[in-house]
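Protein 1 of 2
SEQ + STRUCT:
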Amino acid sequence: MQITIRHGMTGAKMATGVAVVVDVFNASTTAVTVLERGAARVLAVADPAQALTLRKANPDWLLVGESADEAISHQAFDLPNSPHAVMQCGEMGFNGKTVVLSTLSGSVIMTEMVENEQCDIILTCGFVNMGATVRWLHGAGVDSVTLIPAGGLGGTHSPEDAMCAMYLKNELETFPNVMDALVRFLRGSESAERFWGDSALYNESDFNIGVELDRFSSVVSLEKEATGIAVLKKLDE
């Protein structure tokens, strides 16, 4: 299997064939968790204003995410971009529902990916569904795959996304991985600062869930609906 790693928006535009989008903290992890909690689908949108418009037109849909726009309050979202918050809600809160996900980076990359007509199949993966994604890619007889670490705002590289993509590459090539060392490194990284202390943006449990290997068994696909919106679903549904 030929495996290429291309970062961020450039990677989203250059990917061909089978591609895997990786956003560990938190978009990929949140989306997988939402689907595991029973949601029918997750609509990924880049613009939080679009997310609010979709919610207004569909009051029974749930809105999950975050916004850098000071004009859009965090209270406008039902839940933050947080797998921990999703887990706290339980399955009844999501069962059979449509969830709209708008994040600062991951959903932006996802919306770009579905516009790439060179991609035949797109998946999203974090550590939480690593094994399932590896097994699917091997079982599908994929000849080549592009792995796309989403990174952060402004095209910055995020160590958790880069390391997750490399972990996935190693698993596909049956090279050894050492998850404990990776978690120790990430815990001390700049990316993890958002989870600790008085200035924390997320719950510490979001870090723990994000680096929990194979917590879930879902393979999650990313496609473009007839409406043009990016949609995430369990691949077997």
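Protein 2 of 2
SEQ + STRUCT:
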Amino acid sequence: MTNKERLESIKEDVEIGIKVWGISIDDIKWLVEQAEKKTELEHSYRRTISKQNKQNTALYKQNKRYLEIFEQLYNFDGNVQEHSKLTDMLCGEALEGEE
């Protein structure tokens, strides 16, 4: 029996009015509600983590792209005018990658 099936079975028993181990029906209903809330929170948590992982991956790629550009600019061994052209080109490429 799955957890969901077990929870449904307990809910049915509560509705019929069965008293288990001296626990009041209200307490059982409260426990069922807590179990349902926990399940909802777990699903929400997993969705949130998935979204954050996707965002982290995108930021990692962006940071890697920027690092490559900074390294190219830092290691450039030409004159100032060529450096300026290279800077414009690389910055344009970096910004295009964000679209």
